[in-house]
Design a protein that fits this description.
Pfam families: MFS_1. By secondary structure, this protein is mainly α. It has three domains: 1-203, Growth Hormone, Chain: A, CATH 1.20.1250; 206-262; 277-509, Growth Hormone, Chain: A, CATH 1.20.1250. It has 22 helices and no strands. Helix 7 runs antiparallel to helix 9. The protein is globular and about 80 Å long.
Length: 509
Protein backbone atom coordinates (compact mmCIF):
# COMPACT_ATOMS: atom_id res chain seq x y z
CA UNK A 1 0.00 0.00 0.00
CA UNK A 2 1.31 3.45 -0.92
CA UNK A 3 2.29 5.90 1.76
CA UNK A 4 -0.18 8.83 2.08
CA UNK A 5 2.37 11.24 0.60
CA UNK A 6 2.61 9.06 -2.52
CA UNK A 7 -1.12 8.66 -3.15
CA UNK A 8 -1.51 11.99 -4.94
CA UNK A 9 1.14 11.03 -7.50
CA UNK A 10 -0.77 7.89 -8.53
CA UNK A 11 -3.24 9.90 -10.64
CA UNK A 12 -2.46 12.57 -13.19
CA UNK A 13 -4.21 15.94 -12.75
CA UNK A 14 -6.53 15.09 -15.63
CA UNK A 15 -7.44 11.67 -14.20
CA UNK A 16 -7.87 13.21 -10.77
CA UNK A 17 -10.31 15.75 -12.18
CA UNK A 18 -12.31 13.07 -14.00
CA UNK A 19 -12.38 10.91 -10.87
CA UNK A 20 -13.56 13.88 -8.80
CA UNK A 21 -16.39 14.62 -11.21
CA UNK A 22 -17.40 10.94 -11.15
CA UNK A 23 -17.55 10.86 -7.36
CA UNK A 24 -19.52 14.11 -7.22
CA UNK A 25 -21.95 12.73 -9.82
CA UNK A 26 -22.42 9.56 -7.78
CA UNK A 27 -23.24 11.58 -4.68
CA UNK A 28 -25.67 13.72 -6.68
CA UNK A 29 -27.52 10.65 -7.95
CA UNK A 30 -27.99 9.19 -4.47
CA UNK A 31 -29.18 12.47 -2.95
CA UNK A 32 -31.50 13.04 -5.92
CA UNK A 33 -33.17 9.67 -5.31
CA UNK A 34 -34.10 10.65 -1.77
CA UNK A 35 -36.55 13.30 -3.06
CA UNK A 36 -37.25 12.45 -6.70
CA UNK A 37 -40.03 10.05 -5.71
CA UNK A 38 -41.81 12.49 -3.37
CA UNK A 39 -43.80 14.36 -6.02
CA UNK A 40 -44.38 11.15 -7.96
CA UNK A 41 -46.12 9.27 -5.11
CA UNK A 42 -49.66 10.22 -6.32
CA UNK A 43 -48.77 9.00 -9.84
CA UNK A 44 -47.27 5.74 -8.54
CA UNK A 45 -50.18 5.17 -6.13
CA UNK A 46 -52.73 5.74 -8.88
CA UNK A 47 -50.92 3.45 -11.30
CA UNK A 48 -50.51 0.64 -8.76
CA UNK A 49 -54.04 1.01 -7.35
CA UNK A 50 -52.96 1.88 -3.80
CA UNK A 51 -53.72 4.75 -1.43
CA UNK A 52 -51.48 7.80 -1.14
CA UNK A 53 -50.64 6.77 2.45
CA UNK A 54 -49.43 3.37 1.24
CA UNK A 55 -47.46 5.16 -1.46
CA UNK A 56 -45.30 6.83 1.19
CA UNK A 57 -43.75 3.41 1.89
CA UNK A 58 -41.78 4.10 -1.30
CA UNK A 59 -40.11 7.03 0.49
CA UNK A 60 -39.68 5.55 3.94
CA UNK A 61 -38.41 2.14 2.78
CA UNK A 62 -35.50 3.79 0.95
CA UNK A 63 -34.65 6.06 3.87
CA UNK A 64 -34.69 3.29 6.49
CA UNK A 65 -32.65 0.88 4.35
CA UNK A 66 -30.08 3.63 3.89
CA UNK A 67 -30.16 4.31 7.64
CA UNK A 68 -29.36 0.66 8.39
CA UNK A 69 -26.46 0.51 5.95
CA UNK A 70 -24.73 3.84 6.58
CA UNK A 71 -23.39 2.95 10.08
CA UNK A 72 -21.80 -0.14 8.53
CA UNK A 73 -19.88 1.83 5.88
CA UNK A 74 -16.64 2.14 7.86
CA UNK A 75 -16.58 -1.57 8.63
CA UNK A 76 -17.44 -2.49 5.02
CA UNK A 77 -14.72 -0.21 3.62
CA UNK A 78 -12.08 -1.85 5.79
CA UNK A 79 -13.36 -5.31 4.92
CA UNK A 80 -13.59 -4.89 1.11
CA UNK A 81 -11.61 -1.73 0.31
CA UNK A 82 -13.01 1.75 -0.35
CA UNK A 83 -12.92 1.59 -4.17
CA UNK A 84 -14.28 -1.93 -4.30
CA UNK A 85 -17.12 -1.00 -1.92
CA UNK A 86 -17.95 2.09 -4.00
CA UNK A 87 -18.04 0.04 -7.21
CA UNK A 88 -20.14 -2.80 -5.76
CA UNK A 89 -22.57 -0.32 -4.19
CA UNK A 90 -22.97 1.54 -7.47
CA UNK A 91 -23.59 -1.74 -9.33
CA UNK A 92 -26.26 -2.76 -6.81
CA UNK A 93 -27.83 0.71 -6.89
CA UNK A 94 -28.14 0.57 -10.68
CA UNK A 95 -29.60 -2.96 -10.61
CA UNK A 96 -32.23 -2.12 -8.01
CA UNK A 97 -33.08 1.11 -9.86
CA UNK A 98 -33.87 -1.02 -12.91
CA UNK A 99 -36.06 -3.33 -10.82
CA UNK A 100 -37.86 -0.35 -9.22
CA UNK A 101 -38.73 0.92 -12.68
CA UNK A 102 -40.04 -2.49 -13.70
CA UNK A 103 -42.16 -2.93 -10.55
CA UNK A 104 -45.87 -3.54 -11.02
CA UNK A 105 -46.92 -4.03 -7.37
CA UNK A 106 -46.41 -2.12 -4.13
CA UNK A 107 -44.60 -5.07 -2.56
CA UNK A 108 -42.09 -5.32 -5.38
CA UNK A 109 -41.28 -1.61 -5.50
CA UNK A 110 -40.86 -1.42 -1.71
CA UNK A 111 -38.50 -4.41 -1.71
CA UNK A 112 -36.50 -2.92 -4.57
CA UNK A 113 -36.37 0.50 -2.85
CA UNK A 114 -34.97 -1.28 0.22
CA UNK A 115 -32.27 -2.80 -1.97
CA UNK A 116 -31.65 0.60 -3.53
CA UNK A 117 -31.23 2.15 -0.08
CA UNK A 118 -28.90 -0.59 1.15
CA UNK A 119 -26.64 -0.12 -1.87
CA UNK A 120 -26.94 3.66 -1.92
CA UNK A 121 -26.08 4.08 1.76
CA UNK A 122 -22.29 3.69 1.36
CA UNK A 123 -22.09 5.85 -1.77
CA UNK A 124 -22.31 9.24 -0.02
CA UNK A 125 -19.59 8.60 2.58
CA UNK A 126 -17.42 6.70 0.11
CA UNK A 127 -17.60 9.47 -2.49
CA UNK A 128 -16.46 12.01 0.08
CA UNK A 129 -13.77 9.77 1.56
CA UNK A 130 -12.31 8.99 -1.87
CA UNK A 131 -12.35 12.67 -2.84
CA UNK A 132 -10.30 13.45 0.26
CA UNK A 133 -7.99 10.57 -0.61
CA UNK A 134 -7.16 11.50 -4.22
CA UNK A 135 -6.84 15.29 -3.86
CA UNK A 136 -3.97 16.95 -1.96
CA UNK A 137 -4.85 19.17 1.04
CA UNK A 138 -4.46 22.45 -0.85
CA UNK A 139 -7.17 21.40 -3.37
CA UNK A 140 -9.63 19.82 -0.97
CA UNK A 141 -11.50 23.03 -0.20
CA UNK A 142 -12.61 23.51 -3.80
CA UNK A 143 -13.33 19.81 -4.23
CA UNK A 144 -15.46 19.56 -1.12
CA UNK A 145 -17.31 22.70 -2.21
CA UNK A 146 -18.22 20.84 -5.42
CA UNK A 147 -19.32 17.83 -3.35
CA UNK A 148 -21.42 20.07 -1.10
CA UNK A 149 -23.05 21.69 -4.12
CA UNK A 150 -24.21 18.29 -5.38
CA UNK A 151 -25.61 17.57 -1.91
CA UNK A 152 -27.65 20.78 -2.05
CA UNK A 153 -28.54 20.48 -5.73
CA UNK A 154 -29.93 16.93 -5.46
CA UNK A 155 -32.91 17.72 -3.19
CA UNK A 156 -33.54 20.86 -5.26
CA UNK A 157 -33.73 19.13 -8.62
CA UNK A 158 -35.36 15.94 -7.29
CA UNK A 159 -38.93 17.29 -7.09
CA UNK A 160 -38.55 19.14 -10.42
CA UNK A 161 -37.12 16.18 -12.32
CA UNK A 162 -39.55 13.74 -10.69
CA UNK A 163 -42.51 16.00 -11.43
CA UNK A 164 -41.54 16.59 -15.07
CA UNK A 165 -40.96 12.89 -15.72
CA UNK A 166 -44.23 11.87 -14.04
CA UNK A 167 -46.25 14.48 -15.96
CA UNK A 168 -44.68 13.99 -19.39
CA UNK A 169 -43.30 10.45 -19.51
CA UNK A 170 -44.03 7.82 -16.86
CA UNK A 171 -43.09 7.43 -13.19
CA UNK A 172 -41.00 4.36 -14.16
CA UNK A 173 -38.41 6.70 -15.69
CA UNK A 174 -37.59 8.35 -12.37
CA UNK A 175 -35.71 5.12 -11.69
CA UNK A 176 -34.51 4.32 -15.22
CA UNK A 177 -32.58 7.60 -15.46
CA UNK A 178 -30.18 6.24 -12.83
CA UNK A 179 -28.93 3.51 -15.17
CA UNK A 180 -26.65 5.53 -17.52
CA UNK A 181 -25.24 7.47 -14.54
CA UNK A 182 -24.55 4.26 -12.64
CA UNK A 183 -22.87 2.70 -15.70
CA UNK A 184 -20.67 5.77 -16.19
CA UNK A 185 -19.65 5.83 -12.51
CA UNK A 186 -18.82 2.11 -12.49
CA UNK A 187 -16.69 2.42 -15.63
CA UNK A 188 -14.89 5.49 -14.27
CA UNK A 189 -14.25 3.86 -10.90
CA UNK A 190 -12.78 0.72 -12.49
CA UNK A 191 -10.66 2.80 -14.86
CA UNK A 192 -9.49 5.67 -12.64
CA UNK A 193 -9.71 4.73 -8.97
CA UNK A 194 -8.00 1.35 -8.77
CA UNK A 195 -4.58 2.87 -7.96
CA UNK A 196 -5.95 4.47 -4.78
CA UNK A 197 -7.63 1.36 -3.37
CA UNK A 198 -7.36 1.11 0.41
CA UNK A 199 -5.88 -1.81 2.30
CA UNK A 200 -8.30 -4.59 3.20
CA UNK A 201 -8.51 -5.71 6.82
CA UNK A 202 -10.32 -8.93 7.72
CA UNK A 203 -12.38 -7.82 10.70
CA UNK A 204 -14.60 -10.11 12.78
CA UNK A 205 -18.27 -9.78 11.92
CA UNK A 206 -20.64 -8.80 14.72
CA UNK A 207 -23.51 -10.91 13.42
CA UNK A 208 -25.61 -10.46 16.55
CA UNK A 209 -25.21 -6.69 16.53
CA UNK A 210 -26.11 -6.54 12.84
CA UNK A 211 -29.19 -8.73 13.34
CA UNK A 212 -30.35 -6.62 16.28
CA UNK A 213 -29.86 -3.42 14.27
CA UNK A 214 -32.00 -4.70 11.41
CA UNK A 215 -34.58 -6.16 13.82
CA UNK A 216 -35.37 -3.09 15.90
CA UNK A 217 -35.27 -0.63 13.00
CA UNK A 218 -37.46 -2.95 10.90
CA UNK A 219 -40.05 -3.36 13.69
CA UNK A 220 -40.08 0.38 14.32
CA UNK A 221 -40.57 1.30 10.68
CA UNK A 222 -43.28 -1.30 10.02
CA UNK A 223 -45.11 0.00 13.09
CA UNK A 224 -44.88 3.56 11.80
CA UNK A 225 -45.95 2.62 8.28
CA UNK A 226 -49.01 0.49 9.06
CA UNK A 227 -50.05 2.24 12.27
CA UNK A 228 -52.16 4.78 10.39
CA UNK A 229 -54.28 2.00 8.89
CA UNK A 230 -54.55 -0.03 12.12
CA UNK A 231 -55.75 2.54 14.66
CA UNK A 232 -52.27 2.62 16.15
CA UNK A 233 -52.15 1.13 19.64
CA UNK A 234 -55.75 -0.01 19.40
CA UNK A 235 -54.42 -2.88 17.27
CA UNK A 236 -52.51 -5.74 19.01
CA UNK A 237 -50.16 -5.99 16.02
CA UNK A 238 -48.97 -2.39 16.47
CA UNK A 239 -48.51 -2.97 20.20
CA UNK A 240 -46.47 -6.11 19.50
CA UNK A 241 -44.27 -4.27 16.98
CA UNK A 242 -43.71 -1.41 19.44
CA UNK A 243 -42.72 -3.84 22.20
CA UNK A 244 -40.37 -5.74 19.89
CA UNK A 245 -38.77 -2.51 18.64
CA UNK A 246 -38.26 -1.27 22.21
CA UNK A 247 -36.81 -4.54 23.48
CA UNK A 248 -34.66 -4.93 20.37
CA UNK A 249 -33.29 -1.41 20.78
CA UNK A 250 -32.40 -1.98 24.45
CA UNK A 251 -30.68 -5.30 23.72
CA UNK A 252 -28.86 -3.70 20.79
CA UNK A 253 -27.53 -0.93 23.06
CA UNK A 254 -26.32 -3.37 25.70
CA UNK A 255 -24.69 -5.68 23.15
CA UNK A 256 -22.91 -2.97 21.17
CA UNK A 257 -21.60 -1.26 24.30
CA UNK A 258 -20.10 -4.49 25.62
CA UNK A 259 -18.94 -6.11 22.34
CA UNK A 260 -15.18 -5.98 21.67
CA UNK A 261 -15.66 -5.42 17.92
CA UNK A 262 -19.10 -3.77 17.60
CA UNK A 263 -20.69 -3.35 14.20
CA UNK A 264 -21.70 0.17 15.33
CA UNK A 265 -19.51 2.12 17.77
CA UNK A 266 -21.91 3.75 20.22
CA UNK A 267 -19.15 4.97 22.53
CA UNK A 268 -18.94 8.23 20.56
CA UNK A 269 -22.05 9.38 22.41
CA UNK A 270 -19.97 9.97 25.53
CA UNK A 271 -18.88 13.27 23.95
CA UNK A 272 -21.51 15.88 24.84
CA UNK A 273 -20.59 18.02 21.83
CA UNK A 274 -21.22 15.15 19.45
CA UNK A 275 -24.42 14.04 21.18
CA UNK A 276 -26.01 17.49 21.28
CA UNK A 277 -24.95 18.10 17.67
CA UNK A 278 -26.40 14.92 16.20
CA UNK A 279 -29.66 15.23 18.10
CA UNK A 280 -29.93 18.80 16.84
CA UNK A 281 -29.35 17.40 13.35
CA UNK A 282 -32.01 14.70 13.78
CA UNK A 283 -34.64 17.11 15.11
CA UNK A 284 -33.95 19.64 12.35
CA UNK A 285 -34.06 17.19 9.47
CA UNK A 286 -37.20 15.55 10.87
CA UNK A 287 -38.97 18.93 11.10
CA UNK A 288 -37.55 20.14 7.76
CA UNK A 289 -38.62 16.97 5.95
CA UNK A 290 -42.22 17.48 7.11
CA UNK A 291 -42.59 20.17 4.47
CA UNK A 292 -40.82 18.13 1.78
CA UNK A 293 -43.32 15.28 2.26
CA UNK A 294 -46.55 17.22 2.80
CA UNK A 295 -46.31 20.20 0.44
CA UNK A 296 -46.05 18.30 -2.90
CA UNK A 297 -48.94 16.01 -1.95
CA UNK A 298 -51.12 18.92 -0.80
CA UNK A 299 -50.42 20.89 -3.97
CA UNK A 300 -51.39 17.96 -6.17
CA UNK A 301 -54.32 16.58 -4.17
CA UNK A 302 -55.99 19.85 -3.17
CA UNK A 303 -54.55 22.79 -5.11
CA UNK A 304 -54.66 21.33 -8.62
CA UNK A 305 -50.92 21.58 -9.25
CA UNK A 306 -49.19 19.19 -11.61
CA UNK A 307 -46.24 17.20 -10.29
CA UNK A 308 -43.90 19.52 -12.23
CA UNK A 309 -45.28 22.71 -10.70
CA UNK A 310 -45.41 21.24 -7.21
CA UNK A 311 -41.75 20.32 -7.64
CA UNK A 312 -40.92 23.87 -8.73
CA UNK A 313 -42.75 25.34 -5.74
CA UNK A 314 -40.71 23.23 -3.32
CA UNK A 315 -37.37 23.66 -5.08
CA UNK A 316 -36.58 27.22 -4.05
CA UNK A 317 -34.98 26.09 -0.78
CA UNK A 318 -32.06 24.59 -2.67
CA UNK A 319 -31.74 27.58 -5.00
CA UNK A 320 -31.07 30.09 -2.22
CA UNK A 321 -28.99 27.57 -0.23
CA UNK A 322 -26.54 27.12 -3.13
CA UNK A 323 -25.85 30.85 -3.31
CA UNK A 324 -25.39 31.22 0.46
CA UNK A 325 -23.23 28.10 0.99
CA UNK A 326 -19.88 29.78 0.06
CA UNK A 327 -20.54 32.57 2.58
CA UNK A 328 -21.27 30.07 5.35
CA UNK A 329 -18.11 28.13 4.47
CA UNK A 330 -15.91 31.22 4.77
CA UNK A 331 -17.40 32.08 8.18
CA UNK A 332 -16.29 28.79 9.74
CA UNK A 333 -13.16 29.44 11.78
CA UNK A 334 -14.08 33.09 12.23
CA UNK A 335 -17.40 32.61 14.05
CA UNK A 336 -18.54 30.30 16.86
CA UNK A 337 -20.15 27.43 14.95
CA UNK A 338 -22.75 27.03 17.69
CA UNK A 339 -23.96 30.54 16.93
CA UNK A 340 -24.11 29.75 13.21
CA UNK A 341 -26.04 26.53 13.80
CA UNK A 342 -28.45 28.04 16.32
CA UNK A 343 -29.10 31.06 14.10
CA UNK A 344 -29.57 28.91 10.99
CA UNK A 345 -32.00 26.54 12.73
CA UNK A 346 -34.00 29.43 14.21
CA UNK A 347 -34.16 31.01 10.73
CA UNK A 348 -35.59 27.77 9.33
CA UNK A 349 -38.06 27.73 12.24
CA UNK A 350 -39.34 31.22 11.38
CA UNK A 351 -39.69 30.22 7.71
CA UNK A 352 -41.70 27.18 8.83
CA UNK A 353 -43.85 29.37 11.06
CA UNK A 354 -44.50 31.60 8.02
CA UNK A 355 -46.16 28.65 6.29
CA UNK A 356 -48.81 28.41 9.01
CA UNK A 357 -50.51 31.37 7.30
CA UNK A 358 -51.15 29.49 4.05
CA UNK A 359 -54.72 29.27 2.78
CA UNK A 360 -56.48 27.20 0.14
CA UNK A 361 -56.41 30.13 -2.33
CA UNK A 362 -52.67 30.93 -1.98
CA UNK A 363 -50.89 31.72 -5.26
CA UNK A 364 -47.59 30.22 -6.46
CA UNK A 365 -45.27 32.89 -5.04
CA UNK A 366 -47.03 32.85 -1.68
CA UNK A 367 -46.09 29.18 -1.52
CA UNK A 368 -42.60 29.50 -3.00
CA UNK A 369 -41.31 32.48 -1.00
CA UNK A 370 -41.08 30.72 2.40
CA UNK A 371 -39.13 27.97 0.63
CA UNK A 372 -36.67 30.51 -0.76
CA UNK A 373 -36.23 32.26 2.61
CA UNK A 374 -35.78 28.91 4.37
CA UNK A 375 -32.92 28.02 2.04
CA UNK A 376 -30.88 30.99 3.29
CA UNK A 377 -30.61 29.34 6.71
CA UNK A 378 -29.78 25.82 5.48
CA UNK A 379 -26.01 26.27 4.86
CA UNK A 380 -25.54 27.96 8.25
CA UNK A 381 -26.99 24.81 9.77
CA UNK A 382 -25.57 22.02 7.62
CA UNK A 383 -21.98 23.12 7.02
CA UNK A 384 -20.86 24.10 10.56
CA UNK A 385 -22.63 21.13 12.16
CA UNK A 386 -19.94 18.80 10.82
CA UNK A 387 -17.28 20.96 12.47
CA UNK A 388 -19.13 20.80 15.78
CA UNK A 389 -19.86 17.07 15.86
CA UNK A 390 -16.60 15.76 14.42
CA UNK A 391 -14.58 18.32 16.36
CA UNK A 392 -15.98 16.86 19.58
CA UNK A 393 -14.61 13.32 19.12
CA UNK A 394 -11.12 11.86 19.00
CA UNK A 395 -9.50 11.58 15.54
CA UNK A 396 -9.69 7.78 15.49
CA UNK A 397 -13.45 8.01 16.18
CA UNK A 398 -14.20 10.32 13.26
CA UNK A 399 -15.44 7.59 10.90
CA UNK A 400 -17.76 6.06 13.50
CA UNK A 401 -19.05 9.49 14.52
CA UNK A 402 -19.75 10.46 10.92
CA UNK A 403 -21.59 7.19 10.29
CA UNK A 404 -23.74 7.61 13.38
CA UNK A 405 -24.50 11.21 12.40
CA UNK A 406 -25.83 10.16 9.00
CA UNK A 407 -27.68 7.21 10.54
CA UNK A 408 -29.66 9.46 12.88
CA UNK A 409 -30.34 11.92 10.06
CA UNK A 410 -31.83 9.33 7.72
CA UNK A 411 -33.75 7.59 10.51
CA UNK A 412 -35.21 10.92 11.60
CA UNK A 413 -36.39 11.55 8.05
CA UNK A 414 -38.11 8.16 7.86
CA UNK A 415 -39.79 8.50 11.26
CA UNK A 416 -40.81 12.08 10.50
CA UNK A 417 -42.48 11.02 7.26
CA UNK A 418 -44.73 8.52 9.03
CA UNK A 419 -45.55 10.73 12.02
CA UNK A 420 -46.23 13.84 9.93
CA UNK A 421 -48.57 12.06 7.52
CA UNK A 422 -50.43 10.52 10.44
CA UNK A 423 -50.80 13.89 12.15
CA UNK A 424 -51.88 15.51 8.89
CA UNK A 425 -54.55 12.88 8.23
CA UNK A 426 -55.89 12.84 11.78
CA UNK A 427 -55.92 16.64 11.95
CA UNK A 428 -57.81 16.84 8.68
CA UNK A 429 -60.55 14.56 10.01
CA UNK A 430 -60.85 16.56 13.24
CA UNK A 431 -60.98 19.87 11.36
CA UNK A 432 -63.56 18.53 8.93
CA UNK A 433 -65.83 17.38 11.75
CA UNK A 434 -65.50 20.73 13.51
CA UNK A 435 -66.31 22.63 10.32
CA UNK A 436 -69.26 20.37 9.51
CA UNK A 437 -70.65 20.90 13.01
CA UNK A 438 -70.64 24.70 12.71
CA UNK A 439 -71.38 25.08 9.01
CA UNK A 440 -74.56 26.82 7.87
CA UNK A 441 -74.72 25.65 4.27
CA UNK A 442 -78.35 26.44 3.41
CA UNK A 443 -77.64 29.88 1.83
CA UNK A 444 -74.79 28.39 -0.21
CA UNK A 445 -76.92 25.46 -1.36
CA UNK A 446 -79.71 27.84 -2.34
CA UNK A 447 -77.27 29.97 -4.33
CA UNK A 448 -75.89 26.88 -6.07
CA UNK A 449 -79.42 25.70 -6.86
CA UNK A 450 -80.09 29.08 -8.46
CA UNK A 451 -77.05 28.51 -10.67
CA UNK A 452 -78.46 25.23 -11.94
CA UNK A 453 -76.86 22.75 -9.54
CA UNK A 454 -78.90 19.77 -8.36
CA UNK A 455 -79.16 19.25 -4.58
CA UNK A 456 -76.67 16.38 -4.80
CA UNK A 457 -74.22 18.45 -6.82
CA UNK A 458 -74.56 21.37 -4.41
CA UNK A 459 -73.85 19.19 -1.39
CA UNK A 460 -70.80 17.74 -3.17
CA UNK A 461 -69.46 21.24 -3.90
CA UNK A 462 -69.81 22.19 -0.22
CA UNK A 463 -68.18 18.91 0.86
CA UNK A 464 -65.25 19.55 -1.47
CA UNK A 465 -64.76 23.03 -0.05
CA UNK A 466 -64.82 21.70 3.52
CA UNK A 467 -62.30 18.99 2.60
CA UNK A 468 -59.95 21.54 1.01
CA UNK A 469 -60.14 23.88 4.01
CA UNK A 470 -59.68 21.09 6.56
CA UNK A 471 -56.58 19.86 4.69
CA UNK A 472 -54.89 23.25 4.82
CA UNK A 473 -55.87 23.86 8.47
CA UNK A 474 -54.37 20.51 9.48
CA UNK A 475 -51.24 21.19 7.44
CA UNK A 476 -50.78 24.54 9.17
CA UNK A 477 -50.97 22.79 12.53
CA UNK A 478 -48.23 20.40 11.39
CA UNK A 479 -46.04 23.33 10.37
CA UNK A 480 -46.59 25.01 13.75
CA UNK A 481 -45.45 21.84 15.54
CA UNK A 482 -42.42 21.58 13.23
CA UNK A 483 -41.51 25.21 14.01
CA UNK A 484 -41.64 24.50 17.75
CA UNK A 485 -39.32 21.50 17.27
CA UNK A 486 -36.88 23.67 15.31
CA UNK A 487 -36.80 26.35 18.00
CA UNK A 488 -36.09 23.64 20.59
CA UNK A 489 -33.25 22.32 18.45
CA UNK A 490 -31.78 25.82 18.15
CA UNK A 491 -31.28 25.85 21.92
CA UNK A 492 -30.12 22.23 22.23
CA UNK A 493 -26.89 22.89 20.34
CA UNK A 494 -25.65 25.20 23.13
CA UNK A 495 -25.10 22.16 25.37
CA UNK A 496 -21.98 21.52 23.31
CA UNK A 497 -18.62 23.09 24.22
CA UNK A 498 -17.05 25.22 21.52
CA UNK A 499 -14.90 22.98 19.26
CA UNK A 500 -11.20 23.80 19.01
CA UNK A 501 -8.64 23.06 16.33
CA UNK A 502 -9.02 21.82 12.78
CA UNK A 503 -11.35 18.94 12.02
CA UNK A 504 -10.62 16.15 9.59
CA UNK A 505 -13.90 15.83 7.74
CA UNK A 506 -12.76 13.15 5.33
CA UNK A 507 -15.05 10.63 6.96
CA UNK A 508 -17.99 12.95 7.20
CA UNK A 509 -21.11 12.31 5.22
Amino acid sequence: MSRPADIFSLLSPRHRLLAGLTLALANFMVVLDLTIANVSVPHIAGNLGISADQGTWIITSYAVAEAICVPLTGWLAQRFGAVRLFTMSMLGFGLFSLLCGLSMTLGMIVVCRIGQGLCGGPLMPMSQTLLMRIFPPEQRGRVMALWAMTTLLGPTLGPIVGGYISDNWSWHWIFFINLPIAALCIFSALTLLRPVETERVKLPIDYIGLALLVFWIGCLQIMLDIGRDHDWFGDPLIVALAVMAGIGFCVFLIWELTEEHPIVDLRVFRHIGFTSGVFTLALCFGAYFAGIVIIPQWLQLSMGYTATWSGLATSFTGVSAMFIAPIAGRMIGKTDVRLMISGGVAWIGFATLWRTQWTADADFWTLAMPQFIQGIGMPFFMIPLTTLTLGSVRPEETASAAGMQNFLRTLAIAISTSIVLTGWGDGQRVSRNEMAGTLHADPTLADLAGRGFTPEQGRQVVANLVDAQSLVVSMNHVFFTAAVVLFMAATLVWLAPRPTGRVDTSAAH
